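Reviewers of the previous submission asked for a worked example of the structure-prediction workflow described in the proposal, so we include one complete record here. The input consisted solely of the amino acid sequence. No template or homolog information was supplied to the procedure at any stage.
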Amino acid sequence: MNRFSLEQMERAISRKPEPAPDFEAMWSTIEEEVGRRRSGQSSTVKRSSVTRKWVPAAASAVVFLAVAVPVFAAINPGWDLWGRPGVNNAIQHGFGEPLDLSARQSGTTMKLHGVVTDGEQMDVLFTMQVPGLPDYDAVDFESVSLSDSKGKDAKPNVLLKRDEEKDTLKGMFELQDELKKSKRSMHLDASNLVFYQYDDLPLEGDIAEGSMLAPSSSSGGFAAVEIQSIVRKNDQLTIRYALTSPLEDPGDLDPHLVITSGSHTYQSVSRAVLPPDGNDLLCQSTFTIPEREWKGAKLHLTYLQEVKRVAGTWAFDFNADGSKASEAIYSKPLPANEEQAANVNLNLKQLVITPLQIRIPYRQDSNDWTEGVRRFTNVSLQLGDQRIEGSDYHTGMYEKVRHREYLDEGYLRFESPTWFKDWSGEPMKLIFSGLEITKRDLSKHWYDLAAPTATEQQVQMDLDGRKVTFTYYLKGSQLIVKSSSEDPTFKGVSQSVIRAGGKEILPDYVPAPPSSGPFTKVETYSNLPEGTALQLNPGVYMLLEPDETVEAAIN
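From that input alone, the workflow returned the following structure tokens.
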């Protein structure tokens, strides 16, 4: 389910974005973890998990077909939702199917206004008139399905937003475009519209590793919060905890911790749901809180609670035509550029402009872990005098070489702020920034460890000019290794390696959420041989080059 409205997302973005999990696995399980990430990521806001395969919009030659089609007369021209001007552009230029359908259940009327496709994506636009529309933090249907005349059934992603008009929601169902150039009859069912607001439960008990905190009330359906670890670095406090609940899927209610200290309330600056630990929900939250405020602080469990339900199923039958979008697609091949491919680690294949988006399909160039795998976290498109922020959409892996290469394919995508009948003369270039470099080189960086004891000892390493401290000690029979750096361009260690008696040993697998900057990594080695000399290697580690940018002209 997708219980999070775009209003909630916008509020979250204004506070500080909370990244979606991207698990950093042990080296021996990288294949499994990469496959998991490519097939779908766990996120507070659930997106469609359908794996999309890019289908060329045209052959290798430049293709553009201009057709005279009427604009949507039934749609308000202001239908520019959630920074998605492409939808509005497509509607206004007639690259879609107008609809004027309505259904009424429990006093609430749902209207379908149109369908827009572009060979890759389908958007169904709708509004809902809800008498007594409540204040809410999240809203969703309990179930939505869209099927076609060939029997294919899909679960669309739902986007909902309060309209300027009283008691009205404006929305869009988003899913993979199966029409391509065909025409099909479609059936839509949307059942039970539910509104939610955040509530919180104070947690009773001592805040310490291993402690079990009990919610002050069982009304939220959460039985206990077990604190697994608390790590502080300067003003950054990271709490990992297991959440026990009898609910079938407690993650749907977005449970997370909030800290109160005196009159101050501290929201997490980063949080994630990790792979489950048995039947518990395993979570991690990071807060920025001064150490003096942590003394006497209280933990609260915040979660979504239902505040209004509109029961019923809104059902529609309509026809959709994918040929209109195919007539409006412009594409051209992008010539091979070895220097560019090496700089951005991507082979850019084609420029594709559809009624909804601008896309550049790519294949990853190489993954040389010894030299360093380059990945830019930000990409934007300079279109004339306008700069458009974009995103990187992975469609899968096209090559795997165990312990060496995992080569991705996908496309860069951008929302077009305007629509031209002829795109060939519009200057465009890509701007890549926020470089991350991931390395692993077992031919060097081995450091001898003194015999570990319960007392902390340290090893200083120089990794590509970054000073990194490894602190190690025994906790019972386990060896604990902590790595950290004060250098803001050292993102952190993903997974270290220990050599004992000539054998390389990996730490216990513990899932971890992403981090945007330097962090302290805590790793545990179990069952190390006793009385054997140990050597430590940083293993997989990540460097940041925040000032490096690369430009690539594409039109």
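The first strand starts at residue 97 and ends at 105. We consider this example representative of the routine output the project will generate in years two and three.
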